[in-house]
Specification:
By secondary structure, the chain is α+β, with helices and mostly antiparallel strands. It is 17% helix and 29% strand. Strands 1-2-3-7-6-5-4 form a 7-stranded antiparallel β-sheet, covered by helices on one side. Helix 1 runs parallel beside helix 3.
Length: 184
């Protein structure tokens, strides 16, 4: 499997070539204990959140990722989220690298679980976000605010010992963020 460092470098090149508007972050899917499987929910009605109108598979395209590989999206609903998992095709010579972009209609950035590495406030293209990860496995999640009751998670599974998943997540989140609606 191609190292996360190589993926981060390639995605950085793609983003720098496409980021005339903004630069940002990128992130793949994490382990089963990751933020994709959080169970915290808000009492708010999800149909009234901005997130309910967003298809996670439309936040990136295969063309966005073409310079770094042939990625195929797969839509899944799991753990309170609508998720799009992007995997680099092994069949076409890729390394199987995967990441996820998830929309949580009734979970805010304030409900993110600490996966062991703490929760750090951050921004993606001036959008409020938080970063968390599992230092044991180098999983990373960058969670961006949509409104007070919904968010978008970019999750990247790690390669133990590489410490690069958050760099990859930053690049992917930076590609996703310009396609998100403005925060009300």
């Amino acid at each position: 499997m191609r190292s996360l460092a190589a993926v981060a470098a390639l995605l950085s090149l793609v983003v720098s070539g496409c980021a005339a508007k903004k630069q940002g972050y990128v992130e793949p899917e994490t382990s089963p204990s990751s933020s994709l499987d959080e169970t915290h929910t808000s009492s708010s009605n999800p149909s009234s959140s901005i997130g309910s109108s967003i298809d996670p598979c439309e936040l990136l395209s295969a063309e966005d990722l073409a310079e770094v590989g042939d990625f195929k999206p797969t839509y899944k609903e799991q753990g309170g989220a609508r998720a799009c998992h992007w995997q680099n095709s092994v069949k076409d010579g890729g390394d199987g690298f995967v990441f996820a972009v998830s929309v949580r209609d009734s979970q805010s950035i304030e409900t993110v679980n600490d996966e062991g590495g703490g929760i750090r406030e951050d921004e993606v293209n001036e959008r409020p976000s938080v970063v968390t990860g599992d230092p044991k496995f180098d999983d990373c999640a960058i969670v961006m605010k949509l409104d007070d009751m919904s968010r978008v998670d970019v999750t990247v599974p790690g390669d133990p010992g590489s410490d690069n998943s958050c760099e990859v997540a930053k690049v992917i989140a930076g590609m996703v963020e310009p396609r998100l609606p403005d925060i009300p």
